[in-house]
Amino acid sequence: MTEHAQLSALCAQLGADPAQAATMATQLLKRAEQIAAQRGGSREDALKGLLEIVIKGRSGEVPARFLPPSAPSG
């Protein structure tokens, strides 16, 4: 099974219809390549981070790095 097919299957398991899942997989792979090129990290690490966002977002959670800073207690 190709990486694209695996990602498509994951997106389908998260509730996307087959066409939408394939599009999502394509976009995730493309963005992972962009992030890796921009930040100098590995494509796999970039994809891992994107999948974390997708999975947490699907369950209504916000990844910690996207939360606003805490207000200072006073």
Molecular structure report:
This protein has about 70 residues and is an all-alpha fold. Helix content is about 65%, strand content about 0%. It has helices at about 5-15, 20-40, 45-60. About 10% of the residues are buried.
Comma- or semicolon-separated keywords:
74 residues; mainly alpha
Which SSEs are present, and which pair or pack?
Blueprint: H1 3-13, H2 18-39, H3 43-58
Which radius of gyration do the C-alpha atoms yield? 15 Å
Using DSSP, what is the number of strands? 0
What overall form do the CA principal axes indicate? flat
Given the structure, what is the number of helices? 3
- Number of discrete domains: 1
Extract low-pLDDT stretches. none
Mean pLDDT: 91
Distance between the termini: 55 Å
Structural class: mainly alpha
SSE order, one letter for each helix or strand: HHH
User: What summary fits the major beta sheet?
Assistant: none
Percentage of residues assigned to helices: 55-70%
Strand content: under 5%
Quick take:
The protein is an all-alpha fold and 74 residues long. Helix content is 66%, strand content 0%.
